[in-house]
């Protein structure tokens, strides 16, 4: 559905049942689709095919971030994550961004890099040039492996090659640049890299060992920007301190790791919800954050003439809407339906916007009231539940602990004892 507002005011106040009904109404979900959200249609046999030695399944909360507007289109964003406050924080930041038009994105297209490692070379430099002279033949052989991808406009598009020095000697690294269209693309590019091995060995007169994609997907980037209204952020001082918080991450890898973790809270939750490979996205993001030789912030912040905060984020985004679990897992399919994304690039652009929203929300909270305030009430409920509180007891204990500023097992047990007496 293209024409709707993602500002679902009061959505957080509804019960799970009511939220599901709302989604059903908005996206015309079938009873089966709704059942998949409750795990009612769980078929263990399906999971047995996914990995080895399956003994069961592990469930996580599926939430919806509201208020997102990306490239003038509204989105409700599914998030699968165990951490309290993340969904609320993203929704809040998206609401602030909305005031100034939401998120605007661009991308480099879905090009993945597949690496072929060549060793035992007598003349690495001329082997490299010989490979490049014959790149059309390499591309043609690679493309014979995936006629469907080529028909869709994708396939191997180029070849690049580098000679590198390593602790076990000189190597030639040949890289296939493959347009994977709407898939994550790992299978397609790995198959191509394996298929061109004999040709690469013939051309280079070397020996090929590894043939595998690179998770540093630097040719599959998404850029996003958004303007965050100064007043909505809490005023001039908060904006100034958010800028200091960003500068800290930009300068210091210890802070940058945490800053980028905040970005990935959002991106990984959506990656998971859509059945994509979260480790590939994490690996790509952190490698990209080190591309200048020092690990740094993936996002940037500046203050514009109006005094508003302008955030940007550029990140490799190897995720798809086709292949892998994306078409198999019932909740991943449902996530795509709720998002209404048609292409991998559109999904990547929403994910990157979510990452920027998440980052801004964390920086705002850190620079203003501190992060624990938001975390505490949900955390308090978890602590209460963990000590065996039931029904209404959970709320009562959580409220009391937050009021007293003592959220821990000991306090929870003392309050529970008092209530039960
Ligand atoms: C917690 O999951 C994420 C934060 O630590 C991010 C940050 O510090 O920017 C709050």
Low-confidence stretches: none
What binds here, in terms of ligands, is:
(R)-mevalonate
What is the CATH topology descriptor of the largest domain?
3-hydroxy-3-methylglutaryl-coenzyme A Reductase, Chain A, domain 2
Alpha-carbon Rg, integer: 24 Å
How many domains comprise the coordinates? 3
User: What about the largest sheet?
Assistant: 4 strands, antiparallel
Rounded to the nearest angstrom, the distance between the terminal CA atoms is 53 Å
Tell how many strands the DSSP assignment holds. Answer: 10
Q: Mind telling me which CATH architecture of the largest domain this is?
A: Alpha-Beta Complex
Description:
This protein is about 50% helix and about 20% strand. A hairpin with a 2-residue loop joins strand 1 and strand 2. The protein is of the alpha+beta class and about 425 residues long.
In short:
49% of the residues lie in helices and 19% in strands. With 421 residues, the chain is of the alpha+beta class. It has three domains: 247 residues, Alpha-Beta Complex (3-hydroxy-3-methylglutaryl-coenzyme A Reductase, Chain A, domain 2); 103 residues, Alpha-Beta Plaits, CATH 3.30.70; 48 residues, Helicase, Ruva Protein, domain 3, CATH 1.10.8.
């Amino acid at each position: 559905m293209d024409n709707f507002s993602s500002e679902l005011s009061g959505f957080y106040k509804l019960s799970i049942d009511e939220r599901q009904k709302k989604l059903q109404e908005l996206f015309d979900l079938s009873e089966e689709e709704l059942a998949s959200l409750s795990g009612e249609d769980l078929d263990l046999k399906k999971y047995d095919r996914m990995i080895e030695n399956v003994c069961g399944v592990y469930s996580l909360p599926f939430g919806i971030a509201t208020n997102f507007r990306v490239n003038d289109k509204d989105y409700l964003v599914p998030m699968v994550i165990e951490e309290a406050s993340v969904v609320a924080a993203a929704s809040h930041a998206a609401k602030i961004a909305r005031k100034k038009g939401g998120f605007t994105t661009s991308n480099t297209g879905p090009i993945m890099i597949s690496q072929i490692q060549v060793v035992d070379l007598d003349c690495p430099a001329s082997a490299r040039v010989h490979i490049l002279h014959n790149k059309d033949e390499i591309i043609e052989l690679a493309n014979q492996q995936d006629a469907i991808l080529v028909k869709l406009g994708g396939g191997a598009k180029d070849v690049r090659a580098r000679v590198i020095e390593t602790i076990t000697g000189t190597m030639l690294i040949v890289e296939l640049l493959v347009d994977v269209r709407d898939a994550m693309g790992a299978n397609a590019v790995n198959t191509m890299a394996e298929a061109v091995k004999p040709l690469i060995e013939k051309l280079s007169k070397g020996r090929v060992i590894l043939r595998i994609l690179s998770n540093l997907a630097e040719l599959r980037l998404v850029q996003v920007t958004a303007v965050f209204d100064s007043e909505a952020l809490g005023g001039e001082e908060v904006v100034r301190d958010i800028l200091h918080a960003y500068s800290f991450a930009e300068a210091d890898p210890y802070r940058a790791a945490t800053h980028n973790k905040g970005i990935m809270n959002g991106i990984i939750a959506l990656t998971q919800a859509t059945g994509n490979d979260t480790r590939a996205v994490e690996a790509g993001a952190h490698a990209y954050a080190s591309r200048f030789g020092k690990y740094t912030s993936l996002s940037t912040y500046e203050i514009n003439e109006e005094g508003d905060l302008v955030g940007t984020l550029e990140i490799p985004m190897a995720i798809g809407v086709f292949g892998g679990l994306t078409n198999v897992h019932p909740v991943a399919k449902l996530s795509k339906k709720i998002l209404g994304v048609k292409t991998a690039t559109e999904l990547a652009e929403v994910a990157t916007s979510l990452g920027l929203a998440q980052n801004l929300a964390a920086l705002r909270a850190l620079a203003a009231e501190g992060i624990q305030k938001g975390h505490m009430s949900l955390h308090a409920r978890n602590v209460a539940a963990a000590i065996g509180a039931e029904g209404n007891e959970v709320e009562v204990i959580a409220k009391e602990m937050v009021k007293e500023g003592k959220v821990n097992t000991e306090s929870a047990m003392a309050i529970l004892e008092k209530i039960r007496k």
